[in-house]
Structures are given as C-alpha cells and as structure tokens.
Amino acid sequence: MAKSKKASASKSAKMVYYFGQTKTEGKGKAKALLGGKGLNLAEMTSIGLPVPPGFTITTEVCDGYYKNGEKLPAGLMDEIQKAVVTLEEELDKKFGDDDNPLLVSVRSGAAVSMPGMMNTILNLGLNDVSTEGLAKATKNERFAYDAYRRLINMYGDVVKGLAHHDFEVAFDKVKKKYKVTEDTEVPAEGLKELCEAYKAVYKKGTGEDFPQDPVFQLQLAVEAVFGSWNADRAISYRRIESAKGNTEIGNLIGTAVNVQAMVYGNMGDDSGTGVGFTRDPNTGQNKFYGEFLINAQGEDVVAGIRTPSPVSEMGKWDKAAHKELMEIKKTLETHYKEMQDIEFTIEKGKLFMLQTRTGKRNGIAAVKIACDMVKEGLITEKDAVLRVPASDLTHCLLPSFKPTARNAADVLCRGLNASPGAAVGKLAFTAHDARERFELGENVILVRRETSPEDVEGMSAAVGILTSTGGATSHAAVVARGWGKCCVAGASDVEINEKAKTIVVNGRKFTAKDTISLDGTTGEVMAGEVETQEPKLSGDFAKLMVWADKYRTMGIRTNADSPADAKRARAFGAEGIGLCRTEHMFFEADRIIHIRAMILADAEDDRRAALKKLLPFQRKDFEGIFKAMAGCPVTVRLLDPPLHEFLPHEAAAQKEMAAELGVKPAEIKKRSEALHESNPMLGHRGCRLSVTYPEILEMQVQAIVEASINCAKKKIDAQPEIMIPLVGTAAELRILREKVEETIAKTVAAKKFEGKLNILIGTMIEIPRACLTANEVAEYADFFSFGTNDLTQMTFGYSRDDVGGFLPDYIEHKIVPVDPFQSLDQTGVGQLVDMGVAKGRSVKGKLKVGICGEHGGDPASIDFCNRAGLDYVSCSPFRVPIARLAAAQAALSQK
Amino acid sequence: MAKSKKASASKSAKMVYYFGQTKTEGKGKAKALLGGKGLNLAEMTSIGLPVPPGFTITTEVCDGYYKNGEKLPAGLMDEIQKAVVTLEEELDKKFGDDDNPLLVSVRSGAAVSMPGMMNTILNLGLNDVSTEGLAKATKNERFAYDAYRRLINMYGDVVKGLAHHDFEVAFDKVKKKYKVTEDTEVPAEGLKELCEAYKAVYKKGTGEDFPQDPVFQLQLAVEAVFGSWNADRAISYRRIESAKGNTEIGNLIGTAVNVQAMVYGNMGDDSGTGVGFTRDPNTGQNKFYGEFLINAQGEDVVAGIRTPSPVSEMGKWDKAAHKELMEIKKTLETHYKEMQDIEFTIEKGKLFMLQTRTGKRNGIAAVKIACDMVKEGLITEKDAVLRVPASDLTHCLLPSFKPTARNAADVLCRGLNASPGAAVGKLAFTAHDARERFELGENVILVRRETSPEDVEGMSAAVGILTSTGGATSHAAVVARGWGKCCVAGASDVEINEKAKTIVVNGRKFTAKDTISLDGTTGEVMAGEVETQEPKLSGDFAKLMVWADKYRTMGIRTNADSPADAKRARAFGAEGIGLCRTEHMFFEADRIIHIRAMILADAEDDRRAALKKLLPFQRKDFEGIFKAMAGCPVTVRLLDPPLHEFLPHEAAAQKEMAAELGVKPAEIKKRSEALHESNPMLGHRGCRLSVTYPEILEMQVQAIVEASINCAKKKIDAQPEIMIPLVGTAAELRILREKVEETIAKTVAAKKFEGKLNILIGTMIEIPRACLTANEVAEYADFFSFGTNDLTQMTFGYSRDDVGGFLPDYIEHKIVPVDPFQSLDQTGVGQLVDMGVAKGRSVKGKLKVGICGEHGGDPASIDFCNRAGLDYVSCSPFRVPIARLAAAQAALSQK
After folding, report:
1. Which of A677, A728, A806 has the CB atom closest to B796's CB atom?
2. Is B624 exposed, middle or buried (0-12, 13-18, 19+ CB in 10 A)?
3. Where is each PEP-utilising enzyme mobile domain found (chains A, B) (predicted)?
4. Between B352 and which of A352, A516, B87, B263 could a Cys-Cys bridge form, CB atoms 3.0 to 4.6 Å apart?
5. Exposed, middle or buried: residue B734 (CB in 10 Å: 0-12, 13-18, 19+)?
C-alpha cells in the first residue's frame, strides 16, 4: 500500500525547484514552468554568480491553484517544507530561530516580465522571537525591528489588503514622538514601538494577530502572490500587452513564486541596493546603466520614493563591489548574449545578485544593441534581425522636435530622459481624465507625482508622461519605454496640485487647458507647442534594414492613394503599392460635384457625361502615382464604397449641393433616401456597383490605361494592376474582367498606342465565399489580394464601425485574445486565407497573392502571411520598415 | 488524305437523329441531347405508335450555335439534307414537289418542357409550286392555300418578327370582300388572294420575297428556333423556374429542333386535332382528360382561340379514333409508367401521335396519381415518394373557401376550373400593373382575355388568374397549374375593358378597386371577399406522408414562436420546434414597455427590475409552447436582435413611449441614438447581448426552467433546448453555457424542484467563423443548429435587407443561379455547413445537428442537408409536409 501510494505521488509533477550551493534543480528547465525570474536565478547560480539561495514554486502550481478553486494543491506545503530544510542546512540558519533566523523574500515571477504588477514580500520569517534573534545575529537591534515593521506593513498590505495609510499614520506618530522627519532617523526603540503599533493596525484591520509561525506566513504569502495574478491591474496590464500583439503574454498559465534567502542593502552605510541594465535601454550604448541607493532595500529604488545615484558613481563608494558588478555584466552578457536588466544588493560590502532578465529597451536601443552585438561577435546578423521586436521600430520612426523650434523653445525645467521621443499635449492630472479626453480625441500629457500600476490605462491613453519624482527605472519610465511612449521622469521642479489641476514650474502656473511639450530624449519640459519633425533612417537602422531585406522572402508594398504617400513609402522601402483606393480621389472639392451629378443621373448617358468630367482627374492622379512608383507594381482598386457615401445627409449640405448642381434639394434627399441601406457594409458596393453601373468601371479603367500610355510615352515604367473589389462569385470576376479587357483594348485603340502595356487584372479576396470558391475565382484572376479588414468583418460578423459596443468586453473576457482588426485572427480568418491561397493556386500554380488589409503592417499577422505562402504584404507607409523586419523574422524563424 | 478527312469528320458528334419506319436513331438516347419532345417521338415510334416520321437536331447544335456567334455549325445542313432524303423516300413525297409535296413542322423541344415559350412553324415546304401540288394531292385547293397562308403568317411572325396585326388586317379585308366572319368560311379563291396579300405583307416587312426554296425555309426556321432560346420571354421563364428551385432548367444547354412530316387536322370534318393528359392533371383522376377541335390544327387548341370539346365526347364523332386513343393512353402509361401529356391529330380518320411528354399536374393530382399507380402496380411506394415534386405539395395545402361562405357567395359566373385553389384579390388588368401592386403588398387577381408568355411576370405576382377565353390547356391554365396558382379560364361572361380597367359580368361593373374571389377548383367567379379555410390532410396525401416518413432518415421540426403555430405544425407532422424566437414575444403591447424600460436603464439593478416584470410573460409563453409540443424537443433561441429594434425611431412614438415610462422624450431619443449602428446585422446582437447584459439571458433561462418545472408538475413532457445565437468563438459559448448552467441550478434550487429536467444547451451556427472553428465550439455545445439565413448573409457579404439593389441583376446575369436566400448556396455556404458538421462531430461524434434557416423548407436545400448528414431540418409550419417528402426523396435518391 505504502509503495503504491508513493508511486502515485511521484507521478504528479514536481512543484518546487531548489537553487543554491546544495543543488540547482531548475537549470535548463522551461521558462514557462519556473517563470523568468526563477529560471534566471537557477541559471545565475549555475554559472557561479553570487545569488542568495532559495527555491521556486512553479507556474503550474498557480494554474492548479485556480483550477482548484483558489486552493493550494495537496502536497505543496510538504515540498516547500523540504526545500526550507535544505535552505536552513545550506545557510546554517533556522526559520523562526531566536538566534540566527532564516529570513526569506517571496516574489512573483511569470514567464513574461510584468513590471510592478505582482506583489512581493520581504523579511518573511520574522516574528516576535526571531526579530530578537536577528538583532542578536546582526548585532543591530534597529535593523531587526526596521525589518520586522517592514514585514508587518508589507504583509498587511499584500496578504491582507490593509490600507497603507493606517501604517503611515502609526509611523508619523512615532516620528513625532521622537521628533524626527526621516524614517532612517527613528531609533531602535522607536521601531520596536512601531512594530507593536503595526501589529495593532494589523489586528484591527484583520481581526487576527500577526502570524508568528514562519511556515504559515510563507503559505499565506504564496497564496497572496497567486491571488495577485488575477488582480485587476495584472489583468489590465496583460490585456493592454495582448492588444499590442504580445501573444506570449496571452498564453501564460500563471506566475511562479520565488522564495529566496534575504540579503540586506539596509544594514548600514556599507550596504546598498541597486538596479540596472547592462547597456543603456534608451540609446543602446554599451555602458552599464543603473542606479543605486546606499542603506536601502531594493524596492526603494523601483518605487521611486528616494532619488538614487547612477551606478557610474558607485566606485567612489565601494570600488570592489563596483568592479565585481562590471565583471558580472560581462559574464551575464556572454552567457545570455543579451542585454540584461538586473537587481543587486550589497550586504556589508558583499555583492549579491537578486535577479536578472532580458532588459526592456526601446526600439532605438534595440537596433543599436543588436548591431553592436553583431560587431562584438556575440550574435549573428540573423540573431540581430530576430532580436529587435518589429513593432518597436516605431521608436526609430518617432518624431523629434525641429532643431530651430527646439532652440526657440521655452524650456521650463529638465527631468530624466526616461523614454525618448517628442510629445505635445494638454495637461491631464489623473489616469481617468487622460483616458476620457483621449477618447474625445484630445492629445494629453499625463502629469503625476509618480505613476503606479493603477495608472496604466491613462498612461496608455496619453501621448506623453511627466512625473515629478522617481528615476529612470521608476514605474513610469519602465512602462513608457516598453510602449515607446515619450516620458520625462523625476522632474522635481514640477509642483503638482492634483486637486486644483495645476502645475507650477518655477513660479509659472499651467492648467489642464495649457499645452506643454516633452522631450523624452533630453528630459526637457517646454511650455506651449514645439514643432516636431520626422525621424532619420540611417546608421544602425539602415544596417538592420539591409539585413532584414537579405533574409526576408516576402515583398513589402504599401497602401497609398497619392503620389506623396507613394514617395514616402518608397523612402521607407516599399516595393510597390498593394492598395491604391480610388474613392478618396473623388472627395476633393473639384471632383465630388461630378460624382454627385453621376449619382443623381437617372440615365446611363447622363452618368457617362458626369463620369467623363471625372476622367481627367483620375488620369492625372494615376499618372502621378505611377511616376512615384515607377518600376514597381501599383494595385489600383476600382470604386468600392456604396454611392450614398458621396451624398450629403444633412439638410443644409443637401441644399448646398442642390444649388451647385442646379436641382431641387428634394431630389437629392430622395436619391439619398433611395440609396439608404440597412447594412451598407453588406450592400450595393464594390464590384456590385460595376455590375449595375459598368460605366464607372469603364471610366476608371480608361483613366488607368491613358495614364499608363502617358507614362510609357515619357519612358516611365508604369505597372498597373487593376483590382476588382468584393468579389464573391467567379461569375462576377468573369463578367467584369471581360469588361476591363474590352475597355483596355478600346482605349489602346482610341489612343492608337502601339507600345506594350502590361496590365494585370485581379481581385480583392475579402468575402468568405471568395475564399471558399477561390479555385473558381482564380480562373479569372492574375492575382489575389486579401482584404482582411472586410474578411474579418464577415468572418466574425463584426461591423468594424459598431464593435465599440461589445469588443472591449470581449477582449476583457478573453473571448477574443486581441482585437481581430489589429492582429489577424489566425484561428478563424486565417483558415479562410489558407484556403484561398491553396484553392487559388490549385488551378494557377503561380498565382500572385498578397494582403492589403491593415493586418499587413502587424508583425504577428505578417508571420502568418509568410507561413501562408503570400508573395507580399502591403501596409501603411509608416509601417513599411516594421513589415520588412517582421517579414525577415518570419522567414528566419519559419525556416 | 480522303480517309483521314473522313475520320476527323466522324469524330465530331452526330447532329441529326432520324425517327420513322426506316430507322429510329434516337431510341434510348439522352433527353439532354434530343430534348423531351425529340426523345419521346423516337420512343413512341419504337413502341409502334402512329407517329409521323421526322428527325431531331440535337441540343448540342443549339449550344454550338451560340458558341459559334449565332451561326449554324458546319456540316449541319448536309446532315439535314440526308435526313430529308430518307424522309422523302419513306413517305414517297418530295420537298417542293408540284405533285405530292413533303411538308414538315419545325418545333423546339428542350430537355425540360417550357410551355408556349418556344416557336413553332407548320406547313414548311410550301411555296407557290408545292401549294398547287398539295391542292392536287389532297384534291382540296382551299385546304392547300389555307396551309400556305398559315405558313407565310407563322414564318413572317416567328422567323422575321413581323407584326401579327398586319396579317390580320389583310385577312379582315378578304373576309370583308367575301362577306364572311369566320376564317373557315373564306372560300379557296379568297385564301389564294390571301396568300398573295400575305406575301405582300412579308415583302413589305422584310424587304425580301417569301423564300421559295424549302431547304432554305428549313434552315431559317431552325435558326429561328435556336434564336428563340434566348428570347426575353424564354429567359424570363427559366429564371422564374430556377428561382423556384428547378435546378434542372438551369443546366439546360439549349433546345433541340424537331422536324416532322406534317399531318393535318384541318383537312375537313373527318379531321381534327387534340391535346390531353392520360389522367386528370387537376384532380389526378384516372380518366383521359383532353380536348379536341374538329377541322383544326393543333395550335388552335393550345392558343385558346376556339373553345374545344372534351375528348370524352370524341366517340360521338369518331368512335374508332377515340378507341385507339384510349388504347394508346394505356400503352403510353405502361411504357412510361407515368401520366402523359399528349398531342394528336386525326387526318381524314387516321390518328397520329405528335407528341408525348410527362404531364404537368398540380400537387393534388400528383399525389393521387402516385398513390393510384402504386395501387395499379405500375410503380412502387418509393417511386411514388420520388415522383411527387415536394414543392407541389403546397397545392394540397392550399386554402379553399369556407362552405358556409361559399353558399352565401355572390357568384358572378362560371369559367373553367383551370387550376385549383381559392384566391381573393383586387383586379389587375396588365401584367405590369399586377407586378407593381404586388410589390406594394397588394393581393391582386390578373384579369386577361387570354395570357401569353409576355404575361408570366404578372401571373407570378398575382394570387389568381382569370381569363375570358381559352380552355383548360391554354397558356394561362398550364402555367398557373405548374405554379399551383388558382386559375379560372375561359370565363366568357366576363367582358374585359383593358383600357378602362373594368370588367362587366352580366351587366355588373367592377374596377381595379374591387375585390373578387376565384374558385379554381369549381371555376366560379364571385364578387367580394369570400372567406377561405385551411385544407384537410387526409386520404392519398396522408398515405404519401406515411410512405415519406417510412423512407426519410432526417427529422422534421418547425420554426414556431407560439402555441398556435406549434399546434399547426404538429398537425402537419412536425416532430419538434427547431427554432422558437423569443423576441417576437416581447413586442406585444403589455410587454414592450418592460423591455423598453430595461433598455433605458443605466444600471444593472434597474435592468433586472424591468426584466423581472417580463419573466411571468415569458414563462407563460414557454409553458404554452412546451405543452403544445409535449414529448418533442423545443429549441428556444435566446434574445437575438439588437436592442434598438425595440425602441421607436419616430419622434411621435418616442414621445408616447416617454409618457408611458414617465421619462423625458429626449432621454429616449438619446438612448436610441446611442444604440444606433451602421450595420446592425453585424452589430451588438445575439450572444453579444448576453455577454454585456447577462441579466437578459438569466431572465430567459429562468423562464424556461420555471416553465419546464410547471410542465413537469402537470406531467407534461417538456424538452427544452436552449440555443445561444450568433456564436463566433468557442469562448462565447463557454462563458454563456456556464451562465445558463448556473441559472438552471439556481432556479431549480429556488423552486426546490426535485424531479429531472433534461435541458440541452447548444448554439446556432450562423457566423462563418463558427463553422471554421466548429471543433472548438462543439466542446461546449450539446447541439448545433445552422442558421443559414445569417450564414448566407455573411458568407456572401449580402445584407438581406439591401440585396434588392443588385440581386435581381445578379440573377439575370446568372452571377448567382438562384436567390441564395431561397435555396442554399451549396457551392459556397454549403462548404461551411459541411465543415461545421465535420469539425463539430470530430470532437463529438454524436453531436446533434440541424438547420433552422428558411432553407429548411426548400427541397433542394433539404437534399443538401441530408447529404451533409444533418439530423433534422426545421421550417415554417406550412412547409413541414414538403420537408417530410423532400427528406424522403433525399434519403431514397442518395442511397
């Protein structure tokens, strides 16, 4: 019986992994299992770095905790007990000892770093008895009671959810009694009294005594860490990250818990604590970038309460520790071949590594670090291409201030250059306010003393963030950098009055109605609106683009409707236009009147007469675009929107239009009403217009052909591709292709053109039925271009104009992992794309296939497109570099 | 060289098939090749029936004619020449002979009968010389010139498109000259003059002399028949038939041409012509049903110009011929095992069969004939089931007049009972008028002297058809019967004044504003509206239904929202409710106020309070439906439409609602505007409502559960199935299923119910993505029900409310073969259904799957559903018998 019981127990997964001198069980295990922090503690231990020993409780346990109705799984506490015993033996300390007690920290650590989101408890193991033991062992009573009061406070806050305020009131009372202002000035006696006062706060708030059993403390702490996994702010952070395309974060099953022997940076002036990056996360410079505080615990640095000193000055204080840290930087980068984000503590002159992880950086730094590491021989070109998150290239493409405008700017003060970029907006004083005004279309800058996880929604909504306290590793700085959002932190000259909604900077007052400009690259805060400029695309950026182009296999085109857009996209590296919408061309003042006249016409002849007036405009547009894209294909989509979009709906505008056209307003109203549709998205638009009004198609094709002929005469290599939108049946394309071919022939004949025109005729695949019958449709198509915007609308049954009513709820409830209009739904819509490609190519092996929905600029979607075998993606000009890099990453990672 | 040429010639398909004593080349060939008429002429010849010899030009030649730019294919005229020679030899007559000339008829004949649609030419071969020859041979100059003038008239009309009117004017002149009123009274001399006059009309109209070469006449006639294949009226007929689900007609490649030696029913009083059915096509009675005219050509009967005598009286005139005809009836039915529609001619006492084909009949007759033929041992039960067109069962389900109302009715006159049923409507005098008023929602009865193919659109729009001339086989009668539309023909007491838009019946005048009632079963025309009643479903109908139920494998459910509908459907044989829409229940006056209050509420509590008031109504509704469907499953769909559908949009109605609810009208306007959606079809509706407002789902589920408990207490076997609509992701169903389960448990606990409730929870599959991810969705579904209305909308990208703008054009251009909302698009939407079934069952082998879109009552769609492996179809109560039969046919034909 005993044997079979044991066998069945051994079957269940190991829940606790030890790391230390005794053994390092977690080395080489999966990050998904141990979390990033846990795995890295094991790794660092295994490569000989000074890491306080401890153990990691797996993410599977967290998953089990939730599946088990928020209860710890059976057997967990036994495994923890065993690990604690090993720890006690290794350190020769005992939990709750009255002589030399073992103290531990308890920290969360998921597989993906979530800064500031998860709860941490320090000094666990202290109770009334062991605090005395700690005082004895450290010969420092003040330190011991300071640690104890911190534990009670943190424990009350994190495990029991008590208000921090009550503890502060108690602390203030003690400080008053001892007539001091700083925490550090309170004597040991005062801290002893404070511990009693804190225990009273704890009892008052919870109805229980502060737990004295260290193992019970540990159990509740582990539960609290697990509990924090589903706290609102954690869910909110994951949601925002997911929405930005971070699919990894959506797949997390929970957090691990790291229990680690405490070391103390607050044991006196020979102790300290710091955090840092092995390279500069803003610029990418290969220079340790960090901050430290003397006689402090690590949380003090991150929380931004005291302003720390840069690590570059650490040598002045402790040369040996600084030297060791610089050696560790090298060891870590050689081991991980990546820039690291570390936490360290110096306890009485001895350096301990508490954490390492891949360092977050903005796109500019990411590009530089990748290029530098190739130069340094640490990584290969391919690694470099794979390493820079494609979306982060936006940072390289961020605007900066115009030097002339900068020189003339009214600089109010300077803070820390926490996250680069240039931001101009009006002041918002709360996250809520920032969110609301953002939704009303306003550009706002969120101004906070310091930010906290509760602020992330508002930070996400703001164009820039300004804080008056906190350093370059404060919450505001870390989060803003992750998002590539401009941030100036610790601008201590900025006095914030949240209630009055004003800031005062060196005597000058600004309200919510005032605009300021932030330079995240220099840290300057300027009054008023300073003019911005576009970024330069040279140096490392250009090098990375060259590598990307070397390894990618898909072409990159752009969606552009004007010569200006076409030129811009070409500068960004676009190899053609994948979508040139023709309807935008009709909205200009000198054109809209003709299209309206056409819509009002009852007879085909009148429509043709109106269209004839549009022809020269269209021809000129196309000629300009063909010229800007000379030598590259230009996919022109024929008129797509329903006709009523061109008519005014308001009475006043109808009256105006009537006057212009010389008809009665009633006539316009009548026509507008006749064209009204219940669901215009599914109405009379796209190729359906060409079936009922072939004369529109004829005019557009004539314009394309005449523009091509004009180009040919000027030796400009125009490569038009005529795209027929919204095809759902092969018959539509057959009929319209015939009409296009006829019109081409007719126009060529009329122009007596004898050169060669190479015009392709294809279709936009955006209706589910077109995917399902792609083998039939392909018979009449020279190319397919997936219009995944509409395809997503129809596959999900979501009107993009109306999803506001439920999609936020859907994302929150994880009904959809991300907004399917931002990142292509590979599970559903992706099947239709795969089907469209496979069926299309089943009849035309070399059918050219691309994508021109907005997904064409989304890295995750580009990865999918590469897998689906698409020939190219097309995206907005600004996203072309991102697409180039994402395409290279897809090609390399899918090899 | 000569050899290889011959070989290559023999490779091309045979174009002409001979039938006669010499040889019968077409026996056993495909109907698709020879057309129905051509094949049957060959068949009749082969079983020894007296058929004038001739030959058939294949449908492939017609197809080739169109593919060849409307030119006859090379070699055709050679083949025709050879067949003509064989014919001349067999009959010992010669084309164009001055002694005993060969004369032929030229008739169209597609594989599917298209009554009155195609052109016919008689007496071909006559010219100035051979007419004299015919006069000699028949010793009847009057007859010969009468034949010649008919040829010139018909030829001018059909081949050259000359106006019939010009010929009539010439005829009237001759009649005036000879002072006669009837055609038959004109003497030979007059007819001779008439031929000259007709030739002059011909020359004036065409600029050419009437052709004298019989072979050339033949060639032009063949081309004319081919040309008529794509005449507007033929296209229109095929379109209407296609739209009604006749897929066979959509697959036709063209018409065959039958050239056959002429026989004459107008050679004097010992000659005659007739048409008839081997059984009564109205009642199905096993009694020859036909009409004949003495001394007339066949076209005279069909055209309805002279009123013929019933065949039952034929024995009085020619006993032998009548007896022979009755024997032929038997031979034909034994050979074809089907009721036949025949044409015959008696030439100087000798009977000739000119045509046989399967006889059209209405549903009532179809059922009786099928049942009788089983009794007679001609066919099996399975044959009987397969033979009755499922859609035609509507005829058995047609309303009749209430006997009491009938007895009291104001009978104006009696015509022929041309097509059974009861019709009540206002008078329409032109097809166009009928169509227009139909589209405005009016019930109209089309009143015409006689109908012609040009009238079919109006006939289709009318609820009934009344003609003042023409018999039971006139155009109006044949077409109306085919459609199961009530028709009274040849009501000679009705004087029609088309211009004044009045009829006068025995001195009483009726205008377009007056309502009349038609009894198609008795032929009576009644003034005013006579009350109608539902049909009885017993006798042969019941027998056929028993057979259908024996052979079908799919279940048949109904879409019903009320106990009354449920009862009706059950009487029609429904085995459950496949779709019970709950929103209709909210629109009643005493309920709408509560749902409106709910919509206006800002807070969940207020919504719950309003919903609480709706609960008793819903519970009562469900209880009634469960009771009516006791022992059968009832699929209840949770609230589906967007909330704004429940709010009034007009200012006046909003004001009224505000008064009722005690709020400001502005509040209602604001809410209504906030709920407005650009594309409500793709908006906040279906399960999306339950995700954002779970309290609505909770109220509905609570009502279902309480109703079930109440039923259980009354020993009523309620079998609710809760259907969650518009699911596009598995997560939606997972979350909502949990909520439904919770609510069930909560309600059962609150009611302290200890019995067993068997409630299934499933989903409506109506979003393409649900099909694509059906394997995920099925994890949380006890059943799937395909909502093919919405699935069609999204798969095609067609808004059903807006297709009017282009779908008619699409059907006309054959871009879609039929309206995809009427008959399921098997090519596209069908793939998604197949995928949904296969993927769903891949994770749940026995997943119950049905369909509840309107396609569930369409025979072609039911055939598809059976192939797709669905467990049941659900349709409107009235279509349940049709679905039962169609399901049996699908099961039998797919075996």
Report:
1. A728
2. middle
3. 442-523
4. B263
5. middle
Q: Is the ipTM of this complex over 0.95?
A: no
> Encoding tokens for residue B107?
């008739």
Residue A1 pLDDT grade (very low, low, confident, very high; cuts 50, 70, 90): very low
Across the interface, of B678, B802, B827, the residue whose CB is closest to A801 is B678
b (16+ CB within 10 A) / e for B194-224: bbebbbebbeebeeeebbeebeebbbbbbbb
Beta bridge partners of A508: A505
Cβ within 8 Å of residue A675, ≥6 positions away: A599, A642, A643, A644, A647, A684
Asked if A678 lies within 8 A of B802 by C-beta distance, the reply is yes
- Neighbouring CB atoms inside 10 A of A669's CB total 17
Tens digits of per-residue pLDDT, A196-235?
999 999 999 999 999 999 999 999 999 989 988 888 778 8
Question: How many angstroms separate the most distant Cα atoms in chain A?
Answer: 104
Residues of B in contact with A687 (CB under 8 A): none
- Look at residue A243 in the predicted model and tell me its pLDDT: 57
Which residues of B fall within a CB distance of 8 Å from A683?
799, 802, 805
Catalytic residues of A, by residue number, are 475, 852
Minimum Cα–Cα distance from B727: chain A residue: A796
| Distance from C-alpha of A343 to C-alpha of A298, rounded to nearest angstrom | 8
Shortest alpha-carbon distance between residue A512 and chain B (Å): 28
From the candidates B632, B852, B865, B875, give the one annotated as an active-site residue: B852
- Interchain CB distance below 8 Å, B795 and A768: yes
Q: Hey, are the CB atoms on A795 and B726 less than 8 Å from each other? A: no
User: E strand or H helix at B390, and its extent?
Assistant: none
Distances from the Cα of A284 to the Cα of A278, A338, A371, A734, B702, angstroms:
10, 12, 10, 56, 61
Amino acid at residue number B561: D
Which element (helix H / strand E) includes A768? helix A768-772
- Find which of B649, B802, B821 to mutate to test the A interface (most A CBs within 10 Å of its CB): B802
Name the closest residue on chain B to residue A809, using Cα atoms.
B692
pTM over 0.95: no
pLDDT surpassing 70 at residue B118: no
Phi and psi at residue B226, to the nearest 5°: -55, -40
Q: Which residue of A has its CA nearest to B834?
A: A772
pLDDT tens digits for range B63-98:
999 998 999 999 999 999 999 999 999 999 999 999
Among the partner-chain residues A769, A801, A814, the one whose CB lies closest to the CB of B796 is A769
What is the pLDDT at residue A450?
Answer: 86
Of A726, A772, A805, nearest to B828 by CB-CB distance is A772
- Over residues B527-581, the pLDDT tens digits come to 999 998 777 778 899 999 999 999 999 999 999 989 988 998 999 999 999 999 9
pLDDT one-digit tens code per residue, A402-446? 878 888 899 999 988 888 889 999 999 999 999 999 988 899 999
Per-residue b/e over A768-795, b at no fewer than 16 CB within 10 Å?
A: bbbbbbbbbbbebbbbbbbbbebbbbbb
* A356 or B649, greater pLDDT: A356
Mutate to test the interface with A, among B794, B819, B827, B839 (most CBs of A within 10 A): B794
The residue-averaged pLDDT of B308-318 equals 92
> What is the dihedral sign for C-alpha A566, A567, A572, A574?
positive
Cα–Cα nearest to B146, from B98, B91, B193: B193
CB-CB contact of A486 with A363 (8 Å): no
Minimum CA–CA partner of B730 in chain A = A815
Which residue in chain B is spatially nearest to A799 when comparing CA positions? B682
User: How distant is the Cα of A692 from the closest Cα of chain B, in angstroms?
Assistant: 7
Residues of A in contact with B691 (CB under 8 A): 806, 809-810, 813, 815
